[in-house]
């Protein structure tokens, strides 16, 4: 009988201990083009810029400098309101990273980690707290309804985005997350819209409600157009079989 079979096992184990298998190579992904860098850069400034603008009045935890009215009859209104804002800031600071195609393809692990923070420290708590925050708004019933509709879209797209990721239906996940990020960023668009509508002579409450509806519908229409638009055919590369 030839040598002990355990010898070859030992040999393999020693070989592996001395030369551990290399980490799997990172996927080779071409560098992002100028067009991609332009829109990602714009989106990053839109998101991070608004996060700074959104939070700075609430850093001192002083309700008297809040941009919106706080209910003095409910002592928990302000804590609830600012917890919504702090968690919303997490979501908007991370939103642009998650929709960046190059980042997703080149760093899939980082995409998953950032995605968990986006969901669990950002959209989930923020969207949940937005329900009582909307119900308690001091800006009247039209604003209340518009904010609740905005939140419903945020919550539905969040649940669908999360479920499709868990089910590993990545094509569907991408679409739902684009819709969800469209909702996260609609809060930015509503601010300048609000100012424009006030300038046209609307009352503050009318402008606030219309700007909220306008931003939600505008962002949803844009993202649906983006998903449904006819895709350009790729030019065949000479010498490569299709
Ligand atoms: C898109 C889904 C969102 C919904 C449904 C929502 C809902 C709300 C509601 C109901 C209020 C209270 C409004 C009032 O009292 O009249 C509020 C205030 C606020 N939210 Fe959100 N929010 C969303 C996203 C965000 C995001 C992504 C940010 C990012 C920073 C954000 C930042 C703020 C700020 C800063 C306020 C206080 C108002 C101000 O200072 O201008 N929200 N939000």
TrEMBL record:
Residues annotated as transmembrane: 37-56, 76-97, 117-139, 145-165, 177-198, 210-228
Protein name as it appears in the record: DUF2306 domain-containing protein
Source lineage: Bacteria, Bacillati, Actinomycetota, Actinomycetes, Kitasatosporales
Keyword line: Membrane, Transmembrane, Transmembrane helix
InterPro entries for this protein: DUF2306_membrane
Signal peptide residues on this chain, from the entry's feature table: none
Superkingdom of the source species: Bacteria
Organism: Streptomyces nitrosporeus
């Amino acid at each position: 009988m030839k040598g002990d079979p355990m010898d070859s096992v030992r040999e393999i184990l020693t070989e592996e201990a001395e030369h551990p298998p290399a980490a799997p190579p990172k996927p080779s992904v071409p560098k992002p083009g100028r067009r991609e860098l332009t829109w990602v850069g714009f989106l990053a400034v839109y998101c991070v810029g608004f996060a700074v603008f959104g939070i700075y009045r609430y850093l001192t935890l002083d309700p008297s400098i809040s941009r919106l009215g706080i209910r003095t009859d409910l002592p928990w209104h302000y804590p609830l309101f600012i917890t919504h804002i702090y968690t919303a800031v997490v979501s908007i600071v991370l939103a642009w990273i998650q929709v960046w195609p190059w980042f997703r393809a080149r760093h899939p692990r980082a995409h998953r980690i950032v995605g968990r923070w986006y969901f669990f420290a950002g959209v989930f708590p923020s969207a949940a707290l937005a329900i009582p925050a909307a119900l308690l708004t001091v800006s009247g019933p039209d604003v209340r309804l518009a904010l609740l509709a905005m939140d419903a879209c945020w919550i539905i797209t969040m649940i669908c985005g999360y479920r499709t990721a868990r089910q590993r239906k990545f094509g569907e996940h991408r679409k739902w997350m684009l819709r969800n990020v469209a909702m996260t960023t609609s809060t930015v668009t509503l601010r300048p819209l609000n100012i424009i509508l006030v300038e046209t002579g609307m009352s503050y409450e009318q402008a606030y409600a219309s700007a909220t509806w306008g931003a939600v519908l505008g962002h949803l229409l844009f993202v649906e157009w983006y998903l449904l638009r006819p895709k350009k055919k790729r030019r065949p590369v000479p010498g490569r079989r299709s």
